[in-house]
Design a protein that fits this description.
Residues 1-23 form the signal peptide. It comes from uncultured bacterium UPO41. This is DUF1329 domain-containing protein. Keywords: Signal. Strand 11 and strand 12 (263-266) form a beta hairpin. This protein has helices spanning 10-18, 27-30, 89-92, 98-106, 126-138, 163-171, 315-319, 322-325, 440-446; strands spanning 66-67, 70-71, 82-84, 113-115, 140-142, 147-149, 178-188, 194-205, 221-231, 239-245, 252-258, 263-266, 298-311, 337-350, 360-366, 372-378, 384-395, 400-410, 415-421, 427-429. It has 449 residues and is an alpha+beta fold. The longest helix has 13 residues, at 126-138. The two termini are 21 Å apart. Helices cover 14% and strands 32% of the residues. The radius of gyration is 21 Å and the shape is globular. It has one domain (27-448): outer membrane lipoprotein receptor (LolB), chain A. The chain has a 16-stranded mixed sheet that branches. The protein has a two-stranded antiparallel ribbon with strand order 1-2.
Amino acid sequence: MNIRNTVFTAAAAALFCTGLARAAVGADEVATLGTTLTPLGGEKAGNADGSIPAWSGKPLQVSGASVGDVPKAVFPGEKPLFSVSAANMEKYRDKLSEGTVALMQRYPSSFRIDVYPTHRTAVAPQYVYDNTKKNAASCQAVDGGKTLKGCYGGIPFPIPKSGVEVIWNHLLRLEPESVDLGARNVVGTADGKRTLATRIDESFQHLYYYRDGSADTWNGEYWIQRFNTTDPPFKRGESLVIHDSIDPATPRQAWQYLVGQRRVRRAPTVAYDTPDFVASGANYFDEVMGFMGHPDRYSWKLVGKREMYVPYNANQAVTVSQDEAFSANHLNPANVRWELHRVWEVEATVAPGKRHAVPKRRFYFDEDSWVMLLMDGYDAEGKLWRTSQVTPFYVPKLPGLLIKPVIIFNLEAKTFSAVQSLNGEYYKIVDRKPESYFTGEAVAAEADR
Protein backbone atom coordinates (compact mmCIF):
# COMPACT_ATOMS: atom_id res chain seq x y z
CA MET A 1 0.00 0.00 0.00
CA ASN A 2 1.44 3.36 -0.98
CA ILE A 3 0.81 6.67 0.72
CA ARG A 4 -0.60 9.05 -1.83
CA ASN A 5 1.55 12.12 -2.25
CA THR A 6 -0.38 14.04 -4.86
CA VAL A 7 -2.67 16.85 -3.82
CA PHE A 8 -5.72 15.10 -5.34
CA THR A 9 -6.40 12.42 -7.90
CA ALA A 10 -7.08 13.49 -11.45
CA ALA A 11 -10.71 12.49 -11.00
CA ALA A 12 -11.11 14.77 -8.02
CA ALA A 13 -9.37 17.59 -9.83
CA ALA A 14 -11.81 17.23 -12.70
CA LEU A 15 -14.71 17.43 -10.31
CA PHE A 16 -13.32 20.66 -8.92
CA CYS A 17 -13.43 22.14 -12.40
CA THR A 18 -16.81 20.81 -13.48
CA GLY A 19 -18.83 20.19 -10.30
CA LEU A 20 -21.22 22.62 -8.73
CA ALA A 21 -19.56 24.62 -5.95
CA ARG A 22 -20.97 27.03 -3.39
CA ALA A 23 -19.00 30.22 -3.07
CA ALA A 24 -17.38 30.86 0.30
CA VAL A 25 -19.10 33.44 2.51
CA GLY A 26 -18.51 37.12 1.94
CA ALA A 27 -16.07 39.38 3.76
CA ASP A 28 -18.78 40.85 6.00
CA GLU A 29 -19.74 37.41 7.30
CA VAL A 30 -16.11 36.34 7.69
CA ALA A 31 -15.59 39.40 9.89
CA THR A 32 -18.17 38.08 12.38
CA LEU A 33 -15.81 35.23 13.36
CA GLY A 34 -14.26 36.29 16.63
CA THR A 35 -16.72 39.19 17.08
CA THR A 36 -20.39 38.18 17.24
CA LEU A 37 -19.44 34.58 16.48
CA THR A 38 -16.80 32.46 18.17
CA PRO A 39 -13.69 31.74 16.09
CA LEU A 40 -15.24 28.37 15.14
CA GLY A 41 -18.67 29.79 14.28
CA GLY A 42 -20.89 29.45 17.36
CA GLU A 43 -22.96 32.37 18.61
CA LYS A 44 -20.82 34.19 21.15
CA ALA A 45 -23.77 35.52 23.14
CA GLY A 46 -25.69 33.43 25.62
CA ASN A 47 -29.41 32.82 25.36
CA ALA A 48 -32.18 35.11 26.61
CA ASP A 49 -32.60 33.65 30.10
CA GLY A 50 -28.91 33.04 30.73
CA SER A 51 -29.21 29.26 30.94
CA ILE A 52 -26.68 29.16 28.10
CA PRO A 53 -23.86 31.57 29.01
CA ALA A 54 -21.81 33.67 26.65
CA TRP A 55 -18.71 31.98 25.23
CA SER A 56 -15.61 33.27 27.03
CA GLY A 57 -12.91 31.58 24.93
CA LYS A 58 -10.76 30.89 28.00
CA PRO A 59 -9.26 27.41 28.14
CA LEU A 60 -10.18 25.55 31.31
CA GLN A 61 -7.55 25.31 34.01
CA VAL A 62 -7.96 21.71 35.17
CA SER A 63 -6.16 20.02 38.04
CA GLY A 64 -6.50 16.69 39.75
CA ALA A 65 -6.37 13.09 38.60
CA SER A 66 -6.42 12.18 34.94
CA VAL A 67 -6.44 9.13 32.72
CA GLY A 68 -3.66 9.80 30.25
CA ASP A 69 -4.44 13.28 28.96
CA VAL A 70 -8.12 13.18 30.00
CA PRO A 71 -8.94 14.79 33.37
CA LYS A 72 -11.32 12.71 35.45
CA ALA A 73 -13.44 15.75 36.31
CA VAL A 74 -13.58 19.25 34.83
CA PHE A 75 -16.12 20.74 37.28
CA PRO A 76 -15.58 18.75 40.48
CA GLY A 77 -18.23 19.17 43.14
CA GLU A 78 -20.80 20.67 40.78
CA LYS A 79 -24.28 19.20 41.33
CA PRO A 80 -27.07 18.63 38.79
CA LEU A 81 -29.70 21.35 38.52
CA PHE A 82 -32.40 18.72 37.99
CA SER A 83 -33.01 15.32 36.42
CA VAL A 84 -35.34 14.36 33.57
CA SER A 85 -36.90 10.90 33.36
CA ALA A 86 -40.07 9.26 32.09
CA ALA A 87 -41.90 10.72 35.10
CA ASN A 88 -41.35 14.38 34.14
CA MET A 89 -40.11 14.36 30.55
CA GLU A 90 -43.20 16.11 29.13
CA LYS A 91 -42.15 19.27 30.97
CA TYR A 92 -38.86 19.30 29.04
CA ARG A 93 -39.86 17.57 25.82
CA ASP A 94 -39.10 20.54 23.56
CA LYS A 95 -35.43 20.24 24.56
CA LEU A 96 -35.14 16.46 24.18
CA SER A 97 -34.36 14.45 21.08
CA GLU A 98 -36.82 11.77 20.03
CA GLY A 99 -34.21 9.14 20.83
CA THR A 100 -33.71 10.45 24.37
CA VAL A 101 -37.47 10.32 24.93
CA ALA A 102 -37.58 6.78 23.54
CA LEU A 103 -34.92 5.62 26.00
CA MET A 104 -36.84 7.15 28.91
CA GLN A 105 -39.96 5.33 27.75
CA ARG A 106 -38.12 2.04 27.20
CA TYR A 107 -36.30 2.10 30.55
CA PRO A 108 -38.52 4.24 32.82
CA SER A 109 -37.02 2.98 36.08
CA SER A 110 -33.35 3.32 35.14
CA PHE A 111 -32.70 5.83 32.34
CA ARG A 112 -32.60 9.52 33.18
CA ILE A 113 -30.51 12.54 32.30
CA ASP A 114 -28.90 14.68 35.00
CA VAL A 115 -28.78 18.28 33.75
CA TYR A 116 -25.87 20.40 34.98
CA PRO A 117 -25.04 24.09 34.52
CA THR A 118 -23.89 24.79 30.98
CA HIS A 119 -20.20 25.42 30.36
CA ARG A 120 -19.06 26.32 26.85
CA THR A 121 -15.65 24.68 26.95
CA ALA A 122 -15.15 24.22 23.20
CA VAL A 123 -11.92 26.05 22.40
CA ALA A 124 -9.05 25.36 20.01
CA PRO A 125 -5.41 26.33 19.42
CA GLN A 126 -4.88 29.71 17.76
CA TYR A 127 -3.66 28.15 14.50
CA VAL A 128 -7.01 26.38 14.19
CA TYR A 129 -8.84 29.69 14.68
CA ASP A 130 -6.65 31.29 12.02
CA ASN A 131 -7.25 28.45 9.56
CA THR A 132 -10.98 28.46 10.23
CA LYS A 133 -11.16 32.13 9.26
CA LYS A 134 -9.26 31.37 6.05
CA ASN A 135 -11.62 28.50 5.34
CA ALA A 136 -14.65 30.74 5.72
CA ALA A 137 -13.34 32.82 2.83
CA SER A 138 -11.98 30.04 0.62
CA CYS A 139 -13.43 26.60 1.44
CA GLN A 140 -16.02 25.29 -1.02
CA ALA A 141 -18.25 22.23 -1.20
CA VAL A 142 -17.82 20.80 -4.69
CA ASP A 143 -19.83 18.34 -6.80
CA GLY A 144 -22.98 18.69 -4.73
CA GLY A 145 -21.02 18.43 -1.49
CA LYS A 146 -19.27 15.17 -2.34
CA THR A 147 -15.87 16.76 -1.97
CA LEU A 148 -14.16 20.01 -0.94
CA LYS A 149 -11.52 22.45 -2.08
CA GLY A 150 -9.68 25.35 -0.51
CA CYS A 151 -9.93 23.96 3.04
CA TYR A 152 -7.32 23.09 5.64
CA GLY A 153 -6.52 22.92 9.34
CA GLY A 154 -9.75 24.32 10.78
CA ILE A 155 -13.52 24.04 10.61
CA PRO A 156 -14.29 24.15 6.87
CA PHE A 157 -17.65 25.96 7.09
CA PRO A 158 -17.91 27.95 10.33
CA ILE A 159 -20.89 29.83 8.85
CA PRO A 160 -22.76 26.93 7.19
CA LYS A 161 -25.40 27.41 4.53
CA SER A 162 -26.33 23.76 3.96
CA GLY A 163 -26.62 20.45 5.76
CA VAL A 164 -23.73 18.86 3.87
CA GLU A 165 -21.44 21.65 5.07
CA VAL A 166 -22.35 20.83 8.67
CA ILE A 167 -21.55 17.13 8.26
CA TRP A 168 -18.19 18.07 6.74
CA ASN A 169 -17.62 20.27 9.81
CA HIS A 170 -18.11 17.18 11.96
CA LEU A 171 -15.89 14.98 9.81
CA LEU A 172 -13.15 17.64 9.87
CA ARG A 173 -13.75 18.67 13.50
CA LEU A 174 -10.86 19.63 15.76
CA GLU A 175 -8.53 16.73 16.53
CA PRO A 176 -4.92 16.42 17.75
CA GLU A 177 -2.29 15.63 15.14
CA SER A 178 -1.72 12.18 16.63
CA VAL A 179 -3.31 10.10 19.40
CA ASP A 180 -2.67 6.72 21.00
CA LEU A 181 -5.43 5.07 23.01
CA GLY A 182 -6.77 1.85 24.40
CA ALA A 183 -10.43 1.11 23.82
CA ARG A 184 -13.06 -1.54 24.30
CA ASN A 185 -16.03 -2.27 22.10
CA VAL A 186 -18.78 -3.38 24.45
CA VAL A 187 -22.13 -4.89 23.44
CA GLY A 188 -25.16 -4.77 25.74
CA THR A 189 -27.83 -7.43 25.24
CA ALA A 190 -31.58 -7.23 25.78
CA ASP A 191 -31.33 -9.18 29.05
CA GLY A 192 -29.05 -6.54 30.56
CA LYS A 193 -25.74 -8.36 30.16
CA ARG A 194 -22.56 -6.91 28.68
CA THR A 195 -20.02 -8.68 26.53
CA LEU A 196 -16.61 -7.58 25.29
CA ALA A 197 -16.54 -7.63 21.51
CA THR A 198 -12.92 -6.47 21.25
CA ARG A 199 -10.23 -4.70 23.23
CA ILE A 200 -7.80 -2.76 21.02
CA ASP A 201 -4.72 -0.55 21.10
CA GLU A 202 -5.32 2.18 18.55
CA SER A 203 -3.47 5.02 16.86
CA PHE A 204 -5.08 7.89 15.00
CA GLN A 205 -3.41 10.55 12.89
CA HIS A 206 -5.24 13.61 11.58
CA LEU A 207 -3.39 14.84 8.51
CA TYR A 208 -5.82 17.73 8.01
CA TYR A 209 -4.62 19.24 11.30
CA TYR A 210 -0.87 19.02 10.75
CA ARG A 211 0.46 22.38 11.90
CA ASP A 212 3.00 22.52 9.08
CA GLY A 213 0.48 21.79 6.31
CA SER A 214 -1.65 23.96 4.07
CA ALA A 215 -4.54 23.75 1.64
CA ASP A 216 -2.03 23.77 -1.22
CA THR A 217 -0.01 20.79 0.06
CA TRP A 218 -2.70 18.66 1.71
CA ASN A 219 -3.37 15.45 -0.25
CA GLY A 220 -7.04 15.13 0.77
CA GLU A 221 -6.57 12.36 3.34
CA TYR A 222 -7.86 13.76 6.61
CA TRP A 223 -7.72 10.77 8.95
CA ILE A 224 -5.68 7.58 9.15
CA GLN A 225 -5.99 4.86 11.75
CA ARG A 226 -4.47 1.57 12.80
CA PHE A 227 -5.40 -0.76 15.63
CA ASN A 228 -4.25 -4.05 17.08
CA THR A 229 -6.66 -6.40 18.87
CA THR A 230 -5.56 -7.78 22.25
CA ASP A 231 -8.80 -9.41 23.49
CA PRO A 232 -10.65 -11.73 23.32
CA PRO A 233 -7.82 -14.25 22.87
CA PHE A 234 -9.15 -15.77 19.66
CA LYS A 235 -9.03 -12.33 18.01
CA ARG A 236 -5.64 -11.29 19.41
CA GLY A 237 -3.39 -9.89 16.70
CA GLU A 238 -6.15 -8.92 14.26
CA SER A 239 -5.60 -5.45 12.87
CA LEU A 240 -7.31 -2.86 10.71
CA VAL A 241 -5.88 0.14 8.85
CA ILE A 242 -8.21 2.87 7.53
CA HIS A 243 -7.49 5.96 5.43
CA ASP A 244 -10.36 8.44 4.93
CA SER A 245 -10.21 11.09 2.20
CA ILE A 246 -12.35 13.81 0.69
CA ASP A 247 -11.59 12.30 -2.73
CA PRO A 248 -14.99 10.98 -3.96
CA ALA A 249 -13.28 8.40 -6.18
CA THR A 250 -11.61 6.66 -3.22
CA PRO A 251 -13.15 8.14 -0.06
CA ARG A 252 -12.01 5.21 2.10
CA GLN A 253 -9.21 2.71 1.79
CA ALA A 254 -8.98 -0.10 4.34
CA TRP A 255 -6.72 -3.09 4.95
CA GLN A 256 -7.33 -5.93 7.38
CA TYR A 257 -4.86 -8.38 8.92
CA LEU A 258 -6.43 -11.75 9.75
CA VAL A 259 -4.50 -13.98 12.11
CA GLY A 260 -5.85 -17.23 10.67
CA GLN A 261 -4.73 -16.29 7.16
CA ARG A 262 -1.52 -14.53 8.26
CA ARG A 263 -1.88 -11.97 5.53
CA VAL A 264 -3.17 -8.47 4.87
CA ARG A 265 -6.09 -8.07 2.50
CA ARG A 266 -8.03 -5.12 1.20
CA ALA A 267 -11.28 -4.50 3.08
CA PRO A 268 -13.49 -2.46 0.73
CA THR A 269 -16.69 -3.15 2.70
CA VAL A 270 -15.46 -1.45 5.89
CA ALA A 271 -17.75 1.52 5.30
CA TYR A 272 -21.31 2.82 5.25
CA ASP A 273 -23.94 0.36 6.53
CA THR A 274 -21.74 -2.72 6.66
CA PRO A 275 -22.11 -4.27 10.15
CA ASP A 276 -19.06 -3.38 12.23
CA PHE A 277 -17.22 -6.66 12.84
CA VAL A 278 -15.00 -4.92 15.42
CA ALA A 279 -18.15 -4.57 17.55
CA SER A 280 -19.51 -8.03 16.67
CA GLY A 281 -21.84 -6.46 14.10
CA ALA A 282 -23.85 -4.56 16.72
CA ASN A 283 -23.63 -1.27 14.80
CA TYR A 284 -22.82 -0.03 11.29
CA PHE A 285 -19.37 1.24 10.38
CA ASP A 286 -20.61 4.76 9.64
CA GLU A 287 -22.14 5.01 13.14
CA VAL A 288 -18.66 5.02 14.70
CA MET A 289 -17.80 8.43 16.22
CA GLY A 290 -21.37 9.55 15.58
CA PHE A 291 -20.86 9.55 11.83
CA MET A 292 -17.69 8.29 10.17
CA GLY A 293 -17.04 8.09 6.46
CA HIS A 294 -18.15 9.73 3.27
CA PRO A 295 -21.50 11.59 3.22
CA ASP A 296 -22.39 10.76 -0.39
CA ARG A 297 -25.19 8.28 0.33
CA TYR A 298 -27.42 10.94 1.84
CA SER A 299 -29.03 14.22 0.94
CA TRP A 300 -28.42 16.62 3.83
CA LYS A 301 -31.01 19.19 4.90
CA LEU A 302 -30.08 21.98 7.29
CA VAL A 303 -33.16 22.20 9.55
CA GLY A 304 -31.86 24.97 11.78
CA LYS A 305 -30.62 25.65 15.28
CA ARG A 306 -32.32 24.82 18.57
CA GLU A 307 -31.61 24.48 22.29
CA MET A 308 -31.33 20.91 23.58
CA TYR A 309 -30.15 18.85 26.51
CA VAL A 310 -27.09 16.96 25.26
CA PRO A 311 -24.16 15.04 26.77
CA TYR A 312 -21.33 17.52 27.33
CA ASN A 313 -18.12 17.86 29.38
CA ALA A 314 -18.56 14.15 30.08
CA ASN A 315 -15.05 13.49 31.40
CA GLN A 316 -16.36 11.44 34.30
CA ALA A 317 -18.38 9.21 31.97
CA VAL A 318 -15.28 8.23 29.96
CA THR A 319 -12.80 7.85 32.84
CA VAL A 320 -14.65 5.73 35.42
CA SER A 321 -14.17 1.97 35.39
CA GLN A 322 -16.10 -0.31 33.05
CA ASP A 323 -18.35 -1.50 35.87
CA GLU A 324 -19.07 2.07 36.96
CA ALA A 325 -19.67 3.26 33.39
CA PHE A 326 -22.61 1.01 32.52
CA SER A 327 -26.01 0.15 33.88
CA ALA A 328 -27.88 -2.88 32.56
CA ASN A 329 -29.14 -1.38 29.27
CA HIS A 330 -27.32 1.94 28.89
CA LEU A 331 -24.63 4.14 30.38
CA ASN A 332 -24.89 4.71 34.12
CA PRO A 333 -26.83 8.01 34.38
CA ALA A 334 -24.98 8.96 37.57
CA ASN A 335 -21.78 9.46 35.57
CA VAL A 336 -23.10 11.19 32.44
CA ARG A 337 -23.23 14.96 32.47
CA TRP A 338 -25.93 16.62 30.29
CA GLU A 339 -26.10 20.36 29.61
CA LEU A 340 -28.27 22.78 27.67
CA HIS A 341 -26.57 23.83 24.42
CA ARG A 342 -27.48 25.25 21.04
CA VAL A 343 -27.21 22.62 18.35
CA TRP A 344 -27.53 22.50 14.59
CA GLU A 345 -30.19 20.02 13.50
CA VAL A 346 -29.52 18.26 10.20
CA GLU A 347 -31.77 15.72 8.52
CA ALA A 348 -30.26 13.11 6.21
CA THR A 349 -32.33 11.08 3.74
CA VAL A 350 -31.02 8.52 1.29
CA ALA A 351 -29.90 10.28 -1.90
CA PRO A 352 -31.46 9.41 -5.27
CA GLY A 353 -29.88 6.28 -6.69
CA LYS A 354 -28.27 5.34 -3.36
CA ARG A 355 -29.17 2.86 -0.65
CA HIS A 356 -28.59 2.60 3.10
CA ALA A 357 -29.98 0.37 5.84
CA VAL A 358 -30.99 3.51 7.78
CA PRO A 359 -32.90 5.55 5.16
CA LYS A 360 -33.41 8.59 7.38
CA ARG A 361 -31.33 10.10 10.14
CA ARG A 362 -31.60 13.20 12.26
CA PHE A 363 -28.33 14.59 13.67
CA TYR A 364 -27.63 17.19 16.34
CA PHE A 365 -24.26 18.99 16.19
CA ASP A 366 -22.77 21.26 18.85
CA GLU A 367 -22.61 24.85 17.58
CA ASP A 368 -19.30 25.48 19.36
CA SER A 369 -17.25 22.38 18.44
CA TRP A 370 -19.24 20.85 15.53
CA VAL A 371 -19.09 17.41 17.11
CA MET A 372 -22.16 15.23 16.71
CA LEU A 373 -23.86 14.79 20.07
CA LEU A 374 -27.04 12.84 19.28
CA MET A 375 -28.44 10.94 16.31
CA ASP A 376 -31.84 9.36 15.65
CA GLY A 377 -32.21 6.78 12.87
CA TYR A 378 -35.48 5.77 11.20
CA ASP A 379 -36.53 2.72 9.21
CA ALA A 380 -38.24 2.66 5.81
CA GLU A 381 -41.65 3.19 7.45
CA GLY A 382 -40.40 6.27 9.29
CA LYS A 383 -40.32 4.54 12.69
CA LEU A 384 -37.56 5.45 15.12
CA TRP A 385 -35.23 2.46 15.13
CA ARG A 386 -31.82 3.57 16.37
CA THR A 387 -30.44 6.35 18.50
CA SER A 388 -26.85 7.34 19.34
CA GLN A 389 -25.27 9.32 22.16
CA VAL A 390 -21.76 10.77 22.04
CA THR A 391 -19.96 11.75 25.24
CA PRO A 392 -17.62 14.70 24.49
CA PHE A 393 -14.81 15.30 26.98
CA TYR A 394 -12.42 18.19 27.55
CA VAL A 395 -8.68 17.74 26.98
CA PRO A 396 -6.59 20.68 28.24
CA LYS A 397 -3.42 19.52 26.49
CA LEU A 398 -4.92 20.34 23.07
CA PRO A 399 -7.00 22.29 24.28
CA GLY A 400 -10.43 21.32 23.02
CA LEU A 401 -13.50 19.13 23.20
CA LEU A 402 -13.04 15.63 21.79
CA ILE A 403 -15.31 12.62 21.41
CA LYS A 404 -15.30 8.91 22.28
CA PRO A 405 -17.13 6.69 22.70
CA VAL A 406 -20.44 6.60 20.88
CA ILE A 407 -23.28 4.53 22.35
CA ILE A 408 -25.56 3.16 19.62
CA PHE A 409 -28.95 1.82 20.70
CA ASN A 410 -31.01 -0.56 18.61
CA LEU A 411 -34.44 0.23 20.03
CA GLU A 412 -36.12 -2.73 18.37
CA ALA A 413 -33.61 -5.34 19.53
CA LYS A 414 -33.15 -3.61 22.91
CA THR A 415 -29.37 -3.78 22.53
CA PHE A 416 -26.57 -1.22 22.60
CA SER A 417 -23.03 -0.98 21.25
CA ALA A 418 -20.43 1.15 23.03
CA VAL A 419 -17.81 1.84 20.37
CA GLN A 420 -14.28 2.78 21.48
CA SER A 421 -15.09 2.95 25.19
CA LEU A 422 -12.17 4.52 27.07
CA ASN A 423 -13.29 3.26 30.49
CA GLY A 424 -10.39 1.54 32.22
CA GLU A 425 -8.12 2.45 29.29
CA TYR A 426 -5.85 5.34 28.25
CA TYR A 427 -5.88 8.33 25.86
CA LYS A 428 -2.69 10.24 25.06
CA ILE A 429 -1.80 12.96 22.58
CA VAL A 430 1.54 11.92 21.10
CA ASP A 431 4.09 12.98 18.51
CA ARG A 432 3.29 12.21 14.90
CA LYS A 433 4.27 8.81 13.59
CA PRO A 434 5.67 8.18 10.10
CA GLU A 435 2.71 7.68 7.78
CA SER A 436 4.29 4.38 6.75
CA TYR A 437 3.17 3.11 10.17
CA PHE A 438 -0.42 3.27 8.91
CA THR A 439 -0.01 0.69 6.16
CA GLY A 440 -0.88 -2.93 5.67
CA GLU A 441 2.78 -3.74 5.09
CA ALA A 442 3.71 -2.33 8.51
CA VAL A 443 0.99 -4.38 10.17
CA ALA A 444 2.14 -7.58 8.47
CA ALA A 445 5.79 -6.95 9.32
CA GLU A 446 5.00 -6.51 13.02
CA ALA A 447 2.49 -9.36 13.36
CA ASP A 448 3.35 -11.99 15.97
CA ARG A 449 0.67 -14.53 15.02
